Amino acid sequence: MKDAGFIFGSYAATLGSILVFAWVTLRRAKKSSSQVSDSDKTWL
Amino acid sequence: MSRLINSKSATGTQATRVLGLLAIVVMLWVVVSGLVFTPQDVVQGESVRIMYVHVPSAWIAYLAFILTAVASASWLIGKKHSMGFDRFAGASAEVGVMFMAITLLTGSLWGRLTWGEFWQWDPRLTTTAFLFVTYLGYLAVRRLDGSAEQRARRSAIMALLAVLEIPLVHFSVVIWRSLHQGATVLNPSGDVKLDDLMLFTLFSGVVGFTLVFFWLVLHRQRTMLLVDVVNSRGLDAAIADRRAEAGN
C-alpha cells in the first residue's frame, strides 16, 4: 500500500488516543471509587 | 462473554459493558473495512482511507461540544441547577477535545499526503485549531478555584459562547477560499459522490465513534460524581475540624 506509514499512523493515533483516554478514565474511576461507599454510586 | 458483561467495576454497569462491546465490534469493522475492503479513491488514491477516522472524529467532536452547550444551558435554565448537567457538560467537553485532537492529527497526516504539508494556515484548519484551543480553555476554566456552583456557572457561560464557533468551522470552506475540500456528505445539494462501501464504512465510523463517545462520557461523568463526593466530604471534615478548634 502506498503511503502506508501515514495511513496506519492515522489509525494508530486514533485508536491509541481512545485507548489511553479510556485507560486513564477507568484508573481515575477505580481510585475515586475506593473512597466512596456504594450508596453514593447512583448508577448501581 | 456473559462473565465480562456481568463483572463489577467502579463506574461500569451492564449497560456500559454492552455499549463498550458494541463499540469494539463496530470499530474493528471500521478499521478492517477502511484499511482493506474499501477501494482507492480516483483522485486521492490510498490516502482516502484516512477519511474513515478523520471525518467521524470531527463530527463527534462537534456533537460533543453541542451536547456540552445543551447540558450547560439545562444547568443555567433549570430551577434545581442539577450538578448532573454540569458533570455531563464537563465529561462531554473532555471527550470532545480528545476527538478534536484526533481530527487535527489525522488531518495533518492526510494533508501531508494531499498537499505536501502537515499544516497550512487555511481557514478550515485555522478555525478548527481555534475551536480546539477554545475548549482547552473551557477545561482550564473548569479547574479554577471556587465552589461547584461557581465552576458550573462560569463553564456553562463559556460553553454557550464557545459552541458558536462550530458553524464558523463548518462553513469556513464556503465563506473563504480554502485548500480543504468542501463537505462530501453534508453538502447543501445532497449529492453524495461516494462508492457505497466507502459511504457505509464512513457511517460505520460515525456509529462506532458515537458509541465510544457515550461509553467514555458515562464513565467520565460518574468519575466526576465520585470526585465531587470525595471533595465535599473533605470540605465537611475541614469545617467540622475548624468548629471543633473554635469550640476549644
Structure summary:
Chain A has 44 residues and is mainly α.
Chain-wise SSE layout:
The complex is a heterodimer of chains A (44) and B (248).
Chain A: H1 4-33
Chain B: H1 2-6, H2 14-37, H3 51-77, H4 83-114, H5 123-142, H6 148-162, H7 165-175, H8 196-247
Helix pairs in contact in B: 2-8, 3-4, 3-6, 3-8, 4-5, 4-6, 4-8, 5-6, 5-7
Structure explained in plain terms:
- The complex is a heterodimer of chains A (44) and B (248).
- With 44 residues, chain A is mainly α.
- Chain A is 68% helix and 0% strand.
- Chain A starts with a helix and ends in an 11-residue tail after the last helix.
- In chain A, 18% of the residues are buried.
- Chain B has 248 residues and is mainly alpha-helical.
- Chain B has one domain (16-37, 50-222).
- Helix content of chain B is 75%, strand content 0%.
- Chain B contains eight helices and no strands.
- Chain B is elongated and about 80 Å long.
- The chains are: A mainly alpha (44), B mainly alpha (248).
User: What string gives the helices and strands of chain A in order?
Assistant: H
The proportion of strand residues of chain B reads under 5%
Sheet bearing the most strands of chain A, described?
none
Q: Provide the succession of SSEs of chain B.
A: HHHHHHHH
Q: Give the quaternary arrangement of the chains.
A: heterodimer
Low-confidence stretches of chain A: none
- If you compute it from the alpha carbons, what radius of gyration of chain A comes out, rounded to the nearest whole angstrom? 18 Å
Helix content estimate of chain A: 55-70%
- The mean pLDDT of chain A is 90
C-alpha termini separation of chain A: 48 Å
Mean pLDDT of chain B: 89
- Number of strand elements of chain B: 0
Most extensive interface between two protein chains, with residue counts: A-B, 32 and 38 residues
